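Our collaborator T.R. sent over the components below with a one-line note: 'Predict the complex.' Nothing else. No constraints on interfaces, no templates requested, no preferences about which chain binds where. So this is a plain run: every listed entity goes in together, and whatever single assembly comes back becomes the starting point for the next discussion.
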Amino acid sequence: GDSTSKSNNKDNGGGEKTLVFGRGADSIQLDPSKVTDGESIYVTNQIYDTLVRYVEENTEVKPALATEWNVTDDGLVWTFQLRDDVKFHDGTDFTAEDVVYNFERWTTSAEFTYYGYMFGASEDDMGGIIEKVEATGDYEVQITLSEPNAPFLQTLAMPPFGIASPDAIEEHGDNYFKNPVGTGPFVFKEWVPDDSITLTKNEDYFGEVAKIDKVIFRVIPDNGARFMELQAGTIDIMEGLNPQDIATAEGDDALQIIRRPSMNVSYMAMNMDKGGPMSDKLVRQAINMAINKDELIALYEGVGKEAKNPIPPSLWGFNDDIEPYAYDVEKAKALLAEAGYADGFDITLHTFSNPRPYMPQPKLAAQAIAEMLKEVNINVEITESDWDTHLATVENGEHDMAFLGWTGDNGDPDNFLYVLLDKDNATVGSAGNIAFYKSDEVHDILKAAQVEMDQDKRTELYLKVQEIIHEDAPWVPIAHTTPPLAAKSSVVDFVPHPTGSEPFNLLDIKK
Amino acid sequence: MESVKPLLEVKNLHTHFFTKTGVVRAVDGVNFDVKPGETLGIVGESGSGKSITAMSILGLIPSPPGRIVDGEILFKGEDLLKKSENQMRQIRGKEISMVFQDPMTSLNPVFSVEKQMVETVLAHEKVTKKQARDRAIELLNLVGIPDPSKRVKNYPHEFSGGMRQRVMIAMALACNPSLLIADEPTTALDVTIQAQILELFKKMQKELDMAIIMITHDLGVVAEVCDRVLVMYAGKPAEFTDTKKLFDQGKHPYTLGLMNSIPKISPNKEKLIPITGLPPNLGDLPKGCSFAPRCKHVMDSCLSIDPTLQEIDENHFVRCLLYEESKKAVTT
Amino acid sequence: MSIEPIPNVEVEQGKVKSTKSRSLGMEALFRLLRSKTSIVGLIIILILMITALFAPLIATHDPTVQSIPNRYQAPSSEHILGTDELGRDIFSRIVFGTRISIQIGLIAVGISMVVGVFLGAVAGYFGKWVDQIVMRFIDIMMAFPSILLAIALVAVLGPNLRNAMIAVGIVGVPQFARIVRSAVLSVKETEFIEAARAIGGKHGRILFGHVLPNSMAPIIVQATLGIGTAILDAAGLSFLGLGAQPPTPEWGAMLSDGRAAIQHAPWVVAFPGLAIFLFVLGFNLFGDGLRDALDPKLKE
Amino acid sequence: MLKYITSRLLMLIPVLIGVSILAFSLIHLVPGDPARSILGEKATAAQLEALRNELGLNDPYVVQYGRFLGHILQGDLGKSIQSKESIGVELIQKLPATIELAIFAMVIAIVIGVLAGVIAAVKQYSWFDNISMTVSLFGVSLPIFWLGLMMIWIFSVTFNILPPSGRLTTGVELNTITNFYLLDSILTGNWVALKDAFLHLLMPGIALATIPMAIIARMTRSSMLEVMRQDYIRTANAKGLRKTIIIFQHALKNASLPVLTVVGLQFGLLLGGAVLTESIFSWPGVGRYVYLAVLGRDYPVVQSTILVIAAIFVFVNLITDILYKYLDPRIKYE
Amino acid sequence: MSALLELKNIKKHFPLKSEKLFTKEKPLLKAVDGISLSVRSGETLGLVGESGCGKSTAGRMALKLLEPTEGEIWFKGENITNYRGEQLRKLRREMQIIFQDPYASLNPRKTIEQTLAEPLKIFGMPKGQVTQRIDYLLDVVGLSSYHKQRYPHEFSGGQRQRIGIARALALEPELVICDEPVSALDVSIQAQVINLMEELQAEFNLTYIFIAHDLSVVHHISDRVAVMYLGKIVELGDAGEVYSNPKHPYTQALLSAVPETNPHREKERIILKGDLPSPANPPAGCKFHTRCPFAEDICRVQEPELKLVSTGGQMAACHFAKEVVTEGNFT
Ligand SMILES: Nc1ncnc2c1ncn2[C@@H]1O[C@H](COP(=O)(O)OP(=O)(O)OP(=O)(O)O)[C@@H](O)[C@H]1O
Ligand SMILES: Nc1ncnc2c1ncn2[C@@H]1O[C@H](COP(=O)(O)OP(=O)(O)OP(=O)(O)O)[C@@H](O)[C@H]1O
Ligand SMILES: [Mg+2]
Ligand SMILES: [Mg+2]
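Returned assembly:
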């Protein structure tokens, strides 16, 4: 926010390589522990390192600040060996104490959203399942859990758990969020709010030093305008492409489309809590059958695949044996008749106006579904509201049917199934499970899977859960998207990560 | 007096307005002349074409819809109607200037009096700004504005109605015109102020050798300041003669009706004798004499024959069939 | 009695064409019909009204029926204005959209007018503290950025067409109130109002029988022009996703929905916009002519 | 004069208080709350509650409003709940963007509008009059957002001659001093940036200018026609002044008075009304800022920014009033 | 003759808009500053004076269309100063007003019939009689019943003034205040209306307060005349007396300023200096002293009372009125 200097460097004669990344919104804060928005995390992921990082292609983990680790058999005590050659961008050394400092900081306020959410913190118990974090040596940290947590390691790889420089935190206090200091491949340089954030490469990075010298994240709110900027060459790569523009980009030699692997799901939840037709399984199945997914998916303009399960196929534990409900209007009508709704009924469908990565055109999808359900005499009234209003509405269970979606955080099936479909999360007012699907059977299995440390056994359990859910049909699973990015053809080695953010130290710009 | 060459001669002037609803014959055959140094009065009811006659002389008829369709206006022997806009601009404000009815609205409210006077002088005379300013102050002094060198800086709204009319007159006198047209210069003023302004006019005329056309609908004003009078009715002259003659032996029924319908301050109150009916619509005049529908002495022929202006006596012109000997004979 | 009657000049001149007399309103109507622009405006409005009335006959397709495989088709003989993002016929949607737009225009302006006229009339007529209170309130609304006011109102009430109309209506209130107030203020001072008081008329009678009828001209003009503004505002709200709910063929929403496709299917954006433009233009042309016809200053 | 200004300024206070109450009430009535907006869909009920407490959102409305007013009175606009940044600092960035755009649009509107209006009035009923007045009716009938999109389609997509969004091309360097980019680039002698900033201003500027331009043109015309009928114009003619002097001095100065009021009003409206234009051209101004704040339930930002916009609006109108008085000697200050 | 209407020292002070925010004392415009008059039944009282001297304001107060700031109004022996609401409306039957501007005084959206019917309806005349009464009224003012369906804009100024008169007469009032009823009319029409008014007065035994600034008209129509200057009456008396023998220097100047319609007579003129001072800021002492050719020191400080200056009941407000009487031809 300094108003005296603002500079957007272009690679002038010296061969300095700058990557301009176009996106739709600005970061909110550059303190990853406090944010949940993708735009913030995308940037902090360049600045900070976590103890472990995801590998390039999927959500398996690899060493980062921690070189190795082990866990006791009961799954409660984790010990991490840390690198001893790492310096924060402010020049201070990275040690085990810094890790402890960060963990302790995350338990001081509700603002550290992800910590609380991933480790089950509450107002009374800010630590959640993490009992204690101790430095057992200069470069060794021990974390003790109160209960086993199968996805723990993957969770630690999430960007919100990036380790920040305690010195900088102390120094900047409330303004730390705009003066981020981490250990990552890029160093924070400048932030002009709502315009751009500039990072420069960290020459002393302990991992692979970046091939480009500078990254500028530029805010261009409108998808169409952003694409035009790309066409004009003023940005190098962009996310949030309008599906309609994909064909244009593909037809342009200077441009390429990069599809991010899917780790999300979009769905239409049917509120089982309200009584009425939605509490009848037959109705829910009928609705599943009445929807022509092929056409619906067509609206994704090739950026999505039809969904049949709540979790994306890229995740382990995906049950590929499940046969999706086939599009069959007659059968749907029959089911409805059986349920006593031969004449159909009136119902609301809540949707949201801002496109989300898992649902680029919610308004179109809603209209398409409404039109399809008309065939089986179900009369849908669409209510479209802004994102915040929508969330409030669906969490309060005011809807009959509602669109929503989920992007995985750590690549664990639990992060989908438990969060979205367990009865624990079906409380009115703060529901993650907005179908208010309350199956004890599902609950028991999911709980068991959470404490089971053997992945094969967990897989078994998750396969089973998916069957039950398929049968009970609380949702119409819609799609798993592969959100497209468009880039100049000169951008190479950009490997998009399913979690939605990838460090830029590996990519390069070819002249 | 007979041999003096007239300063201005208006011959058979016709100024019409071509509006959507028809042709308005605002001025329809007006003849008169003004001799150097004399004051000519033009009287008539509202809408009788007094102002349009004046505007025609200055070439300021809004066009469209107005147009001078016929006639000659000879000023110092030259026909003004033949002059170009540029030439006319040289004459306006310099040779012929004009004072309007409403002093409240005739001065530009956003400019100081100084600016408005100076620009007039500069428009016509090759003098410096300084000289123009001095002239402005001198003129304001002449028309009786106290402390003129200070007041010249003021804006019009800072003057009262009477003062503004003095300023207007001063402005009109800026380039020593040989003819001043005053269009109802006192109508908007109170009687006591009117008396002041009329006094000023008399003084000006005495001091500067200048002819004046005084347009008014007040016969009192005419009696007071004019040498000769033109009475107009519905765009046409009704009677044209010396002031005294008009009051003593006015001939036209309209003139007489006018005189009878105004109350006089005299010890014995007489009943007013109004002219009946309404002034005609200039866009749709009746056939024959336009005064016929209201005329007490109307004859059959009046409804079909439009009389012409006749000199019935020396310097006494009347436009009425009663006085057109030949026709009168026929009817009586 | 010896009172001389005024001869009726017109009768005497034998030019009375009919004994029927014209009210000021009729005079204005004749003047209005003489102006070319207002005729054009009137024609546009009539065409739109007819379109709205006979929409099912004029439309070539069902405005909500989708054909996803046929989305984004360029104008052709089958779809004369092409198809939209769900393969619906744009022409038919625009045709049905006229109904929505007319509804928006009338209802929103109706709200502004009723509230605005009431506030303005009361403020202007009673003056003093009533005026003070009403005008401060109007000042506040004026100072509040109007589109933000509309956005906030819709956000509060919930985004749908009805609420968008209410919001647009409320936003239009100050305009009416001010216009009515100043009209009332000037009419209030005229001698015929004083005459009405002098013959013992009560406030209600004077306000509604004399003052308001004579303040009608600016109200009518503002109402006509206001319809255009209301449609633009409502379209703006829909454009921001705060207006008509899908699949309502509201023009602003259509434009907003088609926006993403501007590069490869510009017709999806171009035609609804053109429709809004035409509609608003119609009312503006008409309102403009109406103003000239009703404005006594321009009267010859 | 000074007295007049002070008393006028004092009279603004109740209006601004009213605006702040209205803004406060409206934004608090919008469903949803900032806590959810900050923490996102993944937060738990407990986290939300904790944050609401932290932010003081659970206090009674009166207390919250009092706190807000208290800050304002101390000249503190508060902090954005979303970005944690001081709203004052953010506005220093965004207001200039909007004001620059608004001024640019207004300059276009005034220059073209007044000129067209004067010519149309002087040549009443001529082809120029007819065409310019018809075009100006088009101007007020165009949905700006549509015009914006169409301009982008034509000038950016089809012909690629104007930039579709933003204030500067990425890569063009500019040291900012005032955040008015045109001014800054002149101050720093940066001609590349000047040209670039100017090109970026063109489309949004024109889009934003259409309505005021049309209104000004029509207002100037009718005002000129009115003035040209006045007695003092007849006087000026009778004095033998040149036509140009009569039109551009005598008539225009008088005719400019009502136009000035319209200009003031329109300028104020542009500031608050740029939401659509700013969102189409991705212009980083206050319009978008407060619009996003409404969507994000960023209460302090909505309240303070609307208050600032309202203050500017009334201030601009005050300035036009003062200018009016300056131009019209008939109006006295006391 | 009994007094039909009596004004006792009535004043009307209009508050002027002050742009100063925190001042208690608001500047006042003293439109009428203490006038007392009594109007006798059946007479015509002329009220003359220059523009802005408060004639209309006084007239409106008499009718209670304006609330006096001070003073009392008595009508038929009753103090009506504090009449409100219903009481006041009843009073309306007995006092009416005719306005100056024939164009502004009729509601342009109502037909003549509607305009004339309104007062009748307000006072509850049965429907059947209304039409009849309107026809009668139109006849009385010299219009025909076929004019009923017309709108005001279809009439000339003189005709409209007749309609205004008809409206005033609709309720059969006793007192009619005529606020410059002819000054907007052309000379030829003016006489028609004056004659009409005189005839109506005789016919219906009306009492007129006739406001005008045209001295000849006032002279013609009035029995008595009151001359106003800056919110005050400076001279009051029998019309013939006042015109032939004015006692107040202002009246003298006023009369001398009237242009003489006889070109043969040269009149002795008193040309007043300067302009009418503003009623917002009137001079102290005698309000006329700034323009008075005879002003002396006392005039600048002391305001003269209206006092009897002749046996005929003529009154004048001048310190030197007596002296004028003795010096003049009234020995
Ligand atoms: N621009 C115009 N268009 C049409 N008719 C006009 C126009 N200007 C004047 N007239 C008509 O010309 C006639 C004469 O007008 P003029 O102003 O000369 O009257 P006047 O004798 O000066 O009256 P007044 O005493 O009211 O000033 C009137 O009937 C008027 O309606
Ligand atoms: N409602 C009002 N508010 C403020 N001042 C007023 C009001 N009505 C009249 N005045 C002022 O009071 C003074 C007397 O006005 P009034 O109308 O009585 O004068 P008048 O003698 O009738 O003049 P005229 O001959 O012009 O009609 C004037 O200076 C006028 O400006
Ligand atoms: Mg005239
Ligand atoms: Mg008066």
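Summary for T.R.: Chain E is about 30% helix and 20% strand.
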